[in-house]
Amino acid sequence: MNELIKRKDKAAPAEPSQTQDDIVYAHVFDAILEQRLAPGTKLSEEALGEIFGVSRTVIRRALLRLSHEGVVQLRPNRGAVVSSPNVDEARQILFTRRIIEKAITELAVDNRNSEQLRVLRQMVEDEHQCFSRGDRGTGIRLSGEFHLQLARMAANQPMLNFQRSLISQTSLIIAQFEAGGKSHCSYDEHMELIAAIEAGDKARALKLMDDHLKHVEDKLNLDGEAATDDLHAVFSHLLDKKPLKVKRSKLAED
Length: 254
Ligand SMILES: [Zn+2]
Known about the structure:
Layout: H1 20-33, E1 42-43, H2 45-52, H3 56-68, E2 72-75, E3 79-82, H4 87-111, H5 114-132, H6 136-154, H7 157-177, H8 187-198, H9 202-218, H10 231-234, H11 236-239
Antiparallel strand pairs: 1-3, 2-3
The structure holds zinc ion.
InterPro entries: GntR_C, TF_FadR/GntR_C, Tscrpt_reg_HTH_GntR, WH-like_DNA-bd_sf, WH_DNA-bd_sf
Domain HTH gntR-type: 18-85
Protein name: GntR family transcriptional regulator
């Protein structure tokens, strides 16, 4: 397997069956979730093709998929950019997230088992360690992964898909509007939530989730500054690697 597709952590290991666009998609998705890609960043097909060593067709497919999740905007004749939700859109996304998280929390309580709870606790511990050693990007992504894992516990695929999109859009909102330096999720609150789920205390779990999301929203600040818009800087860890050599997608290349 090529070096490029060995992910730097255990979040979503590359599978042999992954296509090139899966891999490009995953890298860009992670960069957005880790807030290394700022809202409004132009996603040049040419630059990304060069960085990942793949055709523009592959890049376009990955960007199309990201656009379906609302994290990338495709602009006719002007190319793709990382979405930059305005304040109204941000509030709408967060409102929807509260509703979905409520349903997820209820189902997670109903479906809880010791293995899933163990995975959740491990995620929160990893998240804590990342922030402790100053690895904010990975910590932020793990915060999002915690909420995705809850959605997996809910065992409802459409809800999981929707949650994935909402989490990445929330990450963009945080990148755009949060006062710098803070995690958008508190791992203490995550731990409390796990305890309530484990105890089967649905009312408490729902209250904790609602408070948790409220805290995220309270941290929004319209003066927040974004990260970098330099694609080569964001993906610099890939640039010394060789081009992708994985199963090619069946669609025609250009
Ligand atoms: Zn959280």
